[in-house]
Amino acid sequence: MLASQRFENIIAITNERGFVSTKELSNLLAVTETTIRRDCEELEQQGFLLRVHGGAKSMKQKRIISYNDETTMNERFDLNGFEKEIICKKAASFVKDGDCIFLDGGTTVVSMLKYLRGKKIKIVTHSTLIANAFEDEDAELFMVGGKYIIKYNMSIGPITLSTLERFNFDHVFLSCSGIDIEKQMIYTTEMDTMAVKQKAFDLGIHKYMLVDNSKFQVKGFCNFISSSQFDGIISNQSDVYLEDELPDNFILVK
Description:
- Helix 2 crosses helix 3.
- Helices cover about 35% and strands about 25% of the residues.
- It contains ten helices and 17 strands.
- The strands form five sheets. It has a seven-stranded parallel beta sheet with strand order 7-6-5-10-13-16-17, with helices on both faces. The chain has a three-stranded antiparallel beta sheet with strand order 1-3-2. Strands 11-12-15 form a three-stranded antiparallel beta sheet, with helices on one face.
- It is elongated.
- By secondary structure, the protein is an alpha/beta fold.
């Protein structure tokens, strides 16, 4: 394949996906990763893409996501289903009988319930997704009220925050819209859900972020908190980052 043809293919693939790893481009175009890196360097100089750690990012792809960009929770359930399952199974392994835990809103966290089944624990949440999926006779569920947001299937606002202050948590399990690995910053798309996450975070002894690797290098409208403040960032393994390239608090599962 001529260099000009590779250039066209790399640009097309990167623009379509937003981000693509060097390894994947190498496999798709049947050339070495060294060749791909050299091609991406040339294309970056020409302004067609942006080289990032492990691959290339489109210059056209919108990467700062806000409230209006997000789909409803029901639309997200089928996205990265296997990844969410293995992440939740690992997260649930940290919970022991007698613990009080907070489960954030979001489809990533819902799958934890099946792996918590049979544990004598107290669960606090502001998410009706959690409440509707709860079927455990051994655990107790405390539902926090407030202003209800249909798009997110959860409660937010002053009533939610003041009610949360009544609890203390052994473990807090949160989700997010995106995470920047190099800057160690976690993002959300808006302020109201972020305030609930922050309140729960402040009330927890052990804090965990559950995030599948499709959210790596996705930037949200709001800066939430540094990933370094969590006991664990639980995610699935990525072709872009090797485990020894990630901060020590990353817990990768497969």
